[in-house]
Structure formats: C-alpha cells, structure tokens
Amino acid sequence: MPTKQQLCNMKRYLKLLFAASIITLFNACETDVYDPEKIENTKDLVAPADFDWKTTQSLTYSITSKVNTVISVYTDRNCTDESLLIENFALKANEATEIPVNIPAYVTSIFVQYPTTDGQDVLEIKTNEAATRGNNKSVILPADKEIDKFLWNTHYHYPSKTSRGTLMFEDLYPSKGDYDFNDFVIGYNAEVFYSQIRNAEILFNDGFKMSFQIRAIGGTTPYRPAIRLKGFAMKNIEGAKIEFHTTREGISMELLKKGRGANDDVIFVINGTESLRSGGYYNTDPEKPIDKDMPVVTCEVTKDNFGFGNYDISLQYALLAEELPRYFDFFIQNQDNLNEIHFKGFTPTGLGKQSPGTEFCSEENLVWGIAVPEEIAHPAERNDILNVYKGFEKWVTSGGQNNSNWYGQKPIGPVISLK
C-alpha cells in the first residue's frame, strides 16, 4: 500500500501531466484558429506600387585591362556552360569598357574568365562593384596575355548558354484568375551575337537565335504565344537569313510580315499549340499523362552587316544583345479578338483594338505574367502559386527585396515537374 509521501508525489505528477496536456491542446487549437490576416490567395495580395515583378537585375560593370584581351562572363566560379552569360567580349588595352550583364536578382557575384600566359584565370566581381552614378570606378583585370587578333563574334546568352528560363501566364485579364500561373507556360533560351571588331579579311554576321518550349497550357481561351522585340525594327532584319525549326509537326513559328512597315517592331508568333490540349489541358493535371517530350520551336536570324553603310544596323544588334530584357516582350494573343496579355512594363502591340496605354497590372499592382531565369516546376491546375512556393508571398509584398530566389525553394504544394 502506497505511503502518504508516495500519494503526494503521484498527485503532483498528475497535476503536472494535466497542465502539460492543457498547454499542448491550447497550442494545437491556437494553430488552427482562423487568422484574418493570413493571406491564402494571390489575388488578395497588395504589392508595392513600384514593384516591377522582375526576378533578374541588370547591372553594368566597368572593366579595364592593361593588355588587349577577350573575356567571358559567368555566374559560377567553375565557368560552366550552364552559367555562361557573355562569350568572347573584347577589351582594348587601358580603356575602361562598360559591360552590361543581366543576372538573377539573388546572385551576388559574377566571374570573369580571361586568358593568361599560363592558361586561363578567373576574377570574381561582387555585384556591389557594378558601375553606378555613385560608383564609376573601373575594375582592373589582371590579364597579362596580349590577344592581338579578335576572330570571334561576341555572344550574349539569356538566361545562360545551355539553360532555359520559364515564362508563366494567367489568361483571364483583366479579371483575376486562380493564379496557378499555368494557363501558358513557356521555356525560353535566347542568344544574340554581334561583331565588336571588324576584320577586313573576315566577315562576321550579326544575329540572334531564340527557342521556345511549350511546357503547359492550363487555359481554354484560344491564346497563341508571340514575341515582340520592342524597339527593334523590321528594317534591321531586311535581307537577313531567317530560319525556323520545330520538333513537333503542326507547331510552328513565323515572322509577322503582313501590314508591317520598315519601322515597325519585329514580331514572331507561335502557331498550332491548341493541338496539344486534345480537348483538355496540357501538362497541368497530375492525374493525366504528362508529356515530357515537349515541342520546341526556334527562329534563327543571321545578317551580314559588314561595311560602313551598315554600321547603324550593326549597332542595333549590339544593343539587342547587351540589353535584351528591355526588348524581350513575350506575350499571349487571343486569336478570337486579338486581345493580348503582356508582362508588366510592356504595352499592346497594336495588332488588336486594345488601348496603346494599357498596363498589365491591377490597382493592387498584381500581374498576369511572371518570368523567372530558371526552369521550374509550375503549379498543378487550380493550385495558387502562393500555396506552392513558400517564399512567393514575401517576395511580392516586399517588392522583391525578400526571398528573391523563391522559385529555387522546394515546392510545398502540387506541381508538375517536367524534368
């Protein structure tokens, strides 16, 4: 039979156990209590008015070399093709040269590869060393090997030489949709090349190559994808060799020519994507077969701009290469009424009846298109992107200041992975 002391200890233990149970139960209930401030849908977010929705940053670096040399720029110290941004950029001895670079917003360094007498070396440059109004100091490249002949084109790659970025659309503009951003999902890669230095014995071509992979279609409205090079005129491709390629019969790419004048913007459209839906959606329903052999369409433009008479045209290709993000106006067009949906910062092409001043953002500064510089898994049908990528909400509400690599985080909701 328990002693009096043992009974007291048992009572004390039971009281502690009861108190712990109450606290645990309270915490569990508190977690489940409705939080009126918790946002569960993207459509309820309010983004800062000056938020541009960009996941990349455009920086300019001033670099000086003591010798004539040629450099390539990467986002990875190992200088892999997957991180190659700029290939064969010529530097003249003792001249500060400004080099525009477009990199993911979360990247904090670029890596400049250059030839040396012993082979090659790499210089790391921090993003805070980029040239600005308050900092025009040039970075000194410790190159020691003279490159007296420059026999290559300069190539700019977006998002890199061998990777694809992802373009995602909602298609109910101007209404707010379910924000799964899978109504049209496109993978993209672009390469623009030009001649920095003209060699009298060798003719270099200017041009570009752009490829688009149709990754998903989660909308039923008859939209078709298109790309406008805003500010890059038709006259710049007059006489150029233009080639189109496709990996899927019935899906093609073409240059819009009818009614386009010499000073009108270059526009390419992608046709035949409606065949992928087969009466339903394409690559958005995890319960249905997923097509990982997604069609890719490509356009290649090459133009001989050799000679002083073509200098102005050649300069346009150089600007296109170095500043492609401000030209790159990818959009979707409703084939019934010609209405368009663009990324924030771009306006309608004029092909339809939309007002030239139409802005593709809501009063809350929400958008209908998002571009990321990596290939990512898109949300499955009717899964709000806010509930799929944990960092998305803070990225939006902070105006891009926080969680700039939200798309690199592991998804916490249903997605369609196409790798």
Automatic annotation (TrEMBL):
Pfam families linked: DUF4841 (PF16129), DUF4842 (PF16130)
Signal peptide interval: 1-28
Residues of the DUF4842 domain: 208-407
Keywords for the protein's UniProt record, in alphabetical order: Signal
Domain spans labelled DUF4841: 69-141
Keyword Signal annotated: yes
Designated name of the protein: LruC domain-containing protein
